[in-house]
């Protein structure tokens, strides 16, 4: 037997180079990888082994007078009779910023068109926009400055046309999103408490309203309570990196894990849960500015847990295909394409081509190819392909 030493040395050289390359990549990424892995290990250990979420409720409970500071803002724009004398299936709050006029108009013309919903779907859905205020001249959009008309006056004019802006006098900013969340639950409690469901959504989300209405009608007919659905985050750790938009200092939240919560891009709760969340906001410290996390804290205090719905996309954008549209609830990250998506998703051919045995088999194959990826993709999970 002859041994080819030259080939052996070549293989050893390749192995050495590969090892060096892998080690280099690991060394470059180690700090970020290490922080992420360690944070999640600590989080899940806290959640499943220690499970001291009861301490969160006790430590964040504050006197009602102090809690009132998070909700005691005057209304700049309001519509107290929006739901009066109507059987409201869904009150849908869209979180928006004052300058996002085009996004609001796109929603009014597509999935948030109340007239379409009433005439075509046969139910009452009230769509309103929650926003704060631009409180300094430098915050105003450039077109407002050029026009010589104050931006608040522009909002007043917009509201006269559409009657759907709910605005309070706090600075509209990322760090005040929790105030916007509290606004929604307090407004429902005082203005629309009889609505069967409440949905909160971002203004760059797409909602497949026919699918959602059909689903909520079924849930309502079964009398389900303690209902809360969306894209669920379980065992999520606080982000301690100061470079992150979602940085939370230890002084603000000292525990290793957040209670379960749903992605703030879009989720739905039943009316009874909405009322319980309202009650929780009356005694909890709302200084944590990540609104979906605060929602999880409130829900934990009242003993309500979120349920996963595979066709709520969370922060992800759903693939474009009629087999996806057939069961789609929400998709995130839509602005310019919202008109085309609305037209495609609600086209009659969607139901025609996805029904029957052949249609279902075809769509299962298509969804497997679109959703069952060998890497993490923050939209519908692989199991959605088989439902």
Q: How would you describe this structure to a colleague?
A:
With 387 residues, this protein is an alpha/beta fold. Helix content is 46%, strand content 14%. It folds into 2 domains: 66-308, Spore Coat Polysaccharide Biosynthesis Protein SpsA, Chain A (Alpha-Beta Complex); 322-386, no CATH class. The radius of gyration is 24 Å and the shape is globular. The chain starts with a helix and ends in a 16-residue tail after the last helix. The model is unreliable at 25-36 (pLDDT under 50).
Any chance you could write out the topology, listing elements then pairs?
Elements: H1 5-50, H2 53-60, H3 64-67, E1 75-77, E2 88-95, H4 101-109, H5 114-121, E3 124-133, H6 142-147, H7 151-162, E4 165-171, H8 177-191, E5 197-202, E6 205-207, H9 209-221, E7 228-230, E8 232-233, E9 261-262, E10 266-270, H10 271-281, H11 291-302, E11 307-308, H12 322-325, E12 330-332, H13 338-345, H14 348-354, H15 356-371
Parallel strand pairs: 2-3, 2-5, 3-4, 7-11
Antiparallel strand pairs: 1-4, 5-10, 6-12, 7-10, 8-9
Helix pairs in contact: 2-11, 8-10, 8-11, 10-11
Signal peptide: 1-24
Keywords: Glycoprotein, Glycosyltransferase, Golgi apparatus, Membrane, Signal, Signal-anchor, Transferase, Transmembrane, Transmembrane helix
Protein name: Hexosyltransferase
């Amino acid at each position: 037997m002859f041994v080819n030493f030259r080939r052996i040395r070549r293989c050893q050289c390749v192995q050495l180079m590969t090892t060096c390359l892998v080690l280099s990549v690991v060394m470059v990424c180690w700090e970020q990888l290490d922080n992420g892995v360690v944070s999640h290990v600590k989080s899940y250990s806290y959640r499943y082994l220690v499970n001291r979420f009861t301490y969160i409720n006790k430590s964040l409970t504050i006197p009602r007078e102090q809690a009132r500071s998070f909700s005691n803002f005057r209304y700049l724009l309001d519509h107290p009779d929006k739901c009066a004398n109507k059987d409201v299936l869904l009150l849908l709050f869209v979180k928006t910023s004052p300058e996002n006029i085009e996004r609001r108009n796109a929603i009014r013309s597509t999935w948030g068109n109340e007239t379409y919903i009433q005439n075509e779907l046969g139910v009452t859905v009230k769509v309103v926009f929650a926003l704060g205020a631009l409180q300094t001249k430098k915050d105003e959009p450039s077109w407002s400055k050029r026009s010589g008309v104050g931006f608040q006056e522009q909002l007043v004019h917009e509201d006269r046309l559409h009657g759907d802006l709910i605005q309070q006098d706090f600075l509209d900013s990322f760090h005040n999103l929790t105030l916007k969340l509290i606004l929604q639950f307090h407004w429902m409690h005082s203005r629309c408490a009889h609505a069967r469901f409440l949905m909160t959504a971002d203004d760059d989300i797409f909602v497949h309203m026919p699918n959602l209405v059909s689903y909520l009608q079924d849930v309502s007919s079964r009398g389900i309570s303690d209902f809360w659905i969306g894209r669920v985050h379980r065992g999520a750790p606080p982000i301690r990196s100061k470079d992150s938009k979602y940085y939370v200092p230890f002084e603000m939240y000292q525990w290793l894990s957040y209670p379960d919560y749903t992605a703030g891009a879009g989720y739905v709760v039943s009316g009874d849960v909405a009322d319980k969340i309202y009650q929780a906001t009356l005694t909890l410290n709302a200084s944590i500015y990540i609104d979906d996390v605060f929602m999880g804290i409130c829900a934990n205090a009242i003993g309500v847990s979120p349920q996963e719905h595979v066709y709520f996309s969370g922060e992800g954008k759903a693939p474009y295909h009629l087999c996806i549209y057939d069961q789609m609830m929400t998709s995130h990250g839509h602005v310019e394409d919202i008109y085309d998506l609305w037209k495609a998703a609600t086209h009659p051919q969607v139901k025609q081509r996805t029904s029957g045995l052949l249609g279902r088999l075809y769509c299962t194959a298509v969804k497997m190819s679109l959703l069952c990826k060998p890497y993490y993709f923050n939209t519908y999970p692989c199991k959605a392909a088989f439902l």
